From TrEMBL:
The chain crosses the membrane at residues 6-29, 50-73, 93-112, 119-141, 147-172, 184-208, 228-247, 259-280, 286-306. The keyword Transmembrane helix applies. Keywords: Membrane, Transmembrane, Transmembrane helix. The keyword Transferase does not apply. It comes from the Bacteria. This is Uncharacterized protein.
Amino acid sequence: MTEALARGWLLAWIAFGAAPAGSLVLLLIHRITGGRWGEALAPVLRPAAALLPLVALGFLGVAPALPALYPWAADPGAVKPDVAALYLNAGSFAARGAVALLGWSVLAWLVLSGRCSRLVAGLGLAFYGLTISLVPVDWILSLEPRFTSSAFGAGFALHQLLAALALAAVASPRGLDRTTAPDLANLLLATLLGVLYIGLMSYVVAWYGDLPPKAAYYLRREAVPYPALVGAAIAAGGIVPFLLLLLGAVRRSPGALRLVGLLVFVGLVLRFCWLVLPAWGPGAGGAAVAAGLWLVALVVVALLALRLAGRFGRRLGHA
């Protein structure tokens, strides 16, 4: 796999895996709290969560290409010796990713098979909270290992939840009507505000801290086209959906929520590009193109997998 294809795969895999992971979290939350929102969104959330084993398999395309993706893998001297020895090394990276993805896949199987009690759901959310504080740092933040952010894991978790809710809005299941649509709108609005708040406050804290590694992180994103990229992400995927969700007519309309979900999806993809691509310098255009192709391929494979799973399930039901 060439360097551009490997980098494109990482970006596409991160974007593709957001909605399945977020769907699992929403299903676990609903198992504990109940509510009509979960019942209305289940026809979308359950198939999305069923894709987590596919996301886990996608990790096999990341682990062998570490030197092409991460500076610490190509040159251990890029980080402090103790960090390289104890944390940022190929073995630890693969182990943390495997534990997280396999754990999420097992939780998805428990939920979809009806074996997830409230206790299991609570423990599953605790497991997710632990792993989501680690793997986003590995997969994204360690692309620029001298930059640190204590809020990055929480922000990435909100991105996953937002992706799942946007998918539910775009798919608009049959249970989503004028009664349940406001529930989805409220969830979208709250999660969107969380994403915008953490993104803004992370920037403000880094700016006030005035530390060279943090400044360098944002200075790399001043080069063209990244200011336009993040501006479009904030406007199309943040401000416009936020304003639309304040309108009662939009909140009650599944059709209008489709537009909101689509805008949020566009903003999320642009946001992931802004997070990942600048780490690879000016030559990241090839990775962006490859990411688009990989993402289309992953979506096609996911649709085929869901269709085959549906046929297999119907056959078992008739047997």
